[in-house]
Amino acid sequence: MRQLQQSSGSGCRKYGILAFGVLWTAISCCTLVPIIVAVGGTSFAALANDPVSGLITLLAGVGFPLVFGGVFVVIGLVFIVVGLKPIVAGTKVTRPEVAVSNDSLRSGDEFTLDYRQTFKSGTDVERITVQLILREWARYRRGTDTVTVTHDHVIQAFETPARRFEGGETFSDRRRMVIPRGAMHTFQATRNKLLWLVKVKVEIKSWPDFEEEYSITVLPEMA
Amino acid sequence: MASADIQITISGGESVGGVMRFDPGGVLQGAVQVVPRDNFNCKAVYVRLGWRTEGRGDRDSATVAEIPIAQGNLSANTPVYQQFNVILPREPWSYAGHYINIVWDVKVTVDIPLAPDINASQPFVLAPRR
Description:
Chain A has 2 domains: about 15-90; about 95-220, Immunoglobulin-like (Sandwich), CATH 2.60.40. Chain A is built from 2 helices and 12 strands. Chain A has helices spanning about 10-50, 50-90, and strands at about 1-5, 95-100, 105, 110-120, 125-140, 145-160, 165, 170-180, 185-190, 190-205, 210-215, 220. In chain A, the strands form 3 sheets. In chain A, strands 5, 6, 7, 9, 10 and 11 form a 6-stranded antiparallel sheet that branches. In chain A, helix 1 packs antiparallel against helix 2. The radius of gyration of chain A is 25 Å and the shape is elongated. Chain B is mostly beta strands. Chain B has one domain (about 5-125): Immunoglobulin-like, CATH 2.60.40. Chain B is globular. Helix content of chain B is about 0%, strand content about 65%. In chain B, strands 2, 3, 5, 6, 8, 9 and 10 form a 7-stranded mixed sheet that branches. A 3-stranded antiparallel sheet of chain B has the order 1-4-7, with no helix packed on it. Chain B contains no helices and 10 strands.
């Protein structure tokens, strides 16, 4: 059996979103706070002289930057929450061990997938899904932006129904998978890729889902 | 403006739905005939065999064989004819998907100085028998 490594893209994306969110929020706060302090200070001075016009100055002066800048802070916080989800999910389960019987797969080959994952604490699992996916990955320029799109062809999917796992309990599963005969091999060009993946999703009750992807290579040969 | 009639024929594969299919690593046999409609000077006439992606992503492409078949003055109604054999690579296979297509073709380019090139192509499928 050959141990599969987590797909490099999914790990980078996970921490990338969190890092982006922290950076975005920090920059938004650094811009917003001095404006509010400066405008607020002036408005408080005016408030002491003339309460009515001072209050209007305070609301107008602080209210607008607070609402405008607040939108940026909220966007950053959303990124942080999204980035934290997989980390929070990982507090319930260990990283799974995923292994395949054959590491040089060809079009039409069958292989066995072994899956083992230990639960760190008592967990109600709603569903564990293991999917064999052929992913189309395309990148293009639109103006000054670079856009990446993906489309997943789910070739095979297995589901384990809901059940409870106690702390320390290990979930083991073995599945027979097939690269369909004639299916495309792994293809990696600069802007277009065809990637074979095993995608694992553990749906935990009242908790973020645990999701990971493992890449496999399909050679340009027929079985 | 220079113009020419270009005819590309390929053989050695299996006809599937009007398109020739070739096995990866197989041999593509071809013939090209270029008949200029008037006299013109060209830098070169090339036969190129290669693949390109089509679809949502920006294009990736590669030329796996390039055969120069003529250069210099081409005379009106005087055909330039060339046969060729190319050993095909093992990948990438032809593919038609949601965002990505991989298309193989034989392309003839008449490279004319300071004028648009004259092009013609003949697609084929590179994939194993299923």
